[in-house]
Amino acid sequence: MDLGLQGRRAAVAAATSGLGLATAKALHAEGARVAICGRDRGRLDAAVGEIGEGVHGVVADVGTPEGAAGFVEAAQDALGGVDVLVVNAGGPPAGDFAQTPVDAYRAALDLNLMSVVAMCKAAVPAMRERGWGRVVAITSLSVRQPIGGLILSNTARAGATGFLKTLALEVAGDGVTVNSLLPGSHDTARLRSLWGGSLEEAGASIPAGRVGDAGDFGAFAAFLCSAQAGFVTGGAIAVDGGEYRALL
């Protein structure tokens, strides 16, 4: 299936590894012109080489609103504009209510909420003017089903989901779609750092019987950026092998 992404300009945040990298690869494979960011030049250059020819690498830290907006602006300069924005960032430190000081919440909100707002502020107005745009945010299944020991992530990403839904309703009539993807357990460095046992053990409790594959996730994210997905907006879509079990 041709997703209609040939020549589209895509900015993918925090894409030196994991689900961000997989999404950038999928968009590039569909013919999109891609810019990615990361904090470390060495890892960034390695990711650019892994994705393929013509990818732009931007050293940026999306852990602050300024850094997040700066990445989008740099991507616009490099690509001549941004048609597709993939919002992504790493997760804040683990911890529960008793262990987590109040001051830690501010950094988590900057990382997983305010960075989302800043990137959208930098990219969406031009999308509305052109009458076409795609925003896909990589968040977490924790916005529906809080994950124990990740109180900072649970809190900040739930706020981001509220922002994204509101934005989707405001820009739907302008040809811009806004969706968030809620990954469950996928084979990434983040999961390996949080999970003490083997990934086989992690997948045993998932109805699909395994953890997710980053490449499959990236392909689905690319579909949400496609021409065919133009009537899908405001969604918070679980990609989790059935891990989330509630009806709604």
From TrEMBL:
It comes from the Bacteria. InterPro entries: NAD(P)-bd_dom_sf (IPR036291), SDR (IPR050259), SDR_fam (IPR002347). Belongs to the short-chain dehydrogenases/reductases (SDR) family. PANTHER family: 3-OXOACYL-(ACYL-CARRIER-PROTEIN) REDUCTASE, NADPH-DEPENDENT REDUCTASE BACG. This is SDR family oxidoreductase. It comes from Actinomadura parmotrematis.
